[in-house]
Structures
1.
Amino acid sequence: MGMDVYGKAPTSEKGEYFRNSVWYWHPLAEYIQAAHPALAEPCQHWHTNDGDGLDAEQARALGEALRADIHKGTVAAYASAYAARIESIPREGCRYCEGTGTRRDEVGQQMGMVERGWCNACDGVGTCAPPEAHYPFDEANVAAFARFAIASGGFEIW
């Protein structure tokens, strides 16, 4: 699943469409809401795809603020702290192999994992990254969204 963001009155091709998987979108939306609450506030539903968004003036202001964050190093610092926080979350016991490193359920038997002493979910180590680790945050995504927002003429999140 993904979030499709459409420009309402794009001024260039960059403002027509922006897409993120939910994995990338949620951390981006969280950053926007945390870093610029007043600019983000007119959009009440950043985390759902029900057509909420910003008008042209609001979108442009948000895009410019995000660009300024990039130039000041704010986004890079946030990305670094975000990665460190994710890295600090303990790994979890693998639910497919029950922490043994060998998947023995029906799928594991059918796929020959029992014989190989392996689990496809944890790569045989018995633990998995926490769910939060599947949600990346990076400066390139913020920059792409900033370019989109500035040229979008307002946007809707679908």
2.
Amino acid sequence: MRWTIGRTLAASMLPFVAAACSQQPQAPAPATPEVGVVTLQEQDAGIETLLPGRVVALETSEVRPQVNGIIRRRLFEEGALVSAGQVLYEIEDAPYRAALASAQGNLAMASASIRSTRLQADRYGRLLAVKGVSQQDYDNADAAARQAAATVQARRADVMSANVSLGFTRIRAPISGRIGRSLLTVGALAQTGQADPLATISKISEVYVDVTESADKLLNLKDAIRAGGVSRDGASTVAVQLVLPNGKTYPLQGKLAFTDTTVDPSSGSVTIRARFPNPDGTLLPGMYVSAKIVQGVRHNAILVPQQGVSHDAHGDAVALVLGSDGKVAERKLVLGTALGDKWIVNSGLKAGDRVIVEGLQQVKPGDAAKAAAPQQSMAAPGQGARPELGKE
């Protein structure tokens, strides 16, 4: 009896249980994710290359003795600015003054004898006309007069040479610039042809910066210029900026002076020389720096923010693009030079493409997404160049 009643109650409850189950809420469909996109546009972009370089003085001269002698005085402060022609050292000049006096005495004696020999040659010439002397006597007198004149010229040259040697006892600055340390002190023996100079002068009010670039990149740039995709007004207008060893940017801008006409066979690179003003002496010869060279302007370039570029398993650069149908697609890219926080795109993207730069982790190719403005501001190109990836 109890079993029959329980079975009847259970059967009567089934419709209510089924109705309750059918009224439970279903899980909502996932919302379409929002992603930050940037619409690409064509624009002109400067092609910048960051290359290692070394500072070279505009002019460098070694101060060397032209005569032998003991250094008597040093007339400059080490590290000071000196002018061309300024006396730097004095060498003991007593031997050279004595040599000059001796040369002057010899010249005086030669000059005294020339008058008598000339007068005798003239008298013999008149006597020869009346057969008063033989031809041989006249020839000997004329030869003696000519020899006396030649001797005077030789003694005059000796005086000039002695004067030059005496002048070399005052060692002068050959160029204007900043002089370094003195390698010899007062009392030391200075000799012509010695291995070390007395000091070195460097003109650093302006300096050169020599950088090297691979020959293939220069060829690619020239090809782009010939094709019309890159323009350059001329070598004299190419701007160069320096990054100092402490990471700071040198405040004064330089200009490209010239590109070497030969390729280094050991490295396959070409030397590029730029010229910089250096009024405060910040740039010192031998200093290693980085030079940012604006080699040209690429017209109608496509620039993509670097945060929108990633790499696949093969190492290829890729970007996610939101199509007009709201679907995400992947594009493979060939990248050129980095300009600030953007890459120049050689192929893979075009003007009007909407590149996803935020929310990349929320979507994958084929997913639907909604476009939104990026929350982070996009920096302007040309700020903080990075190493190149790929080729132009």
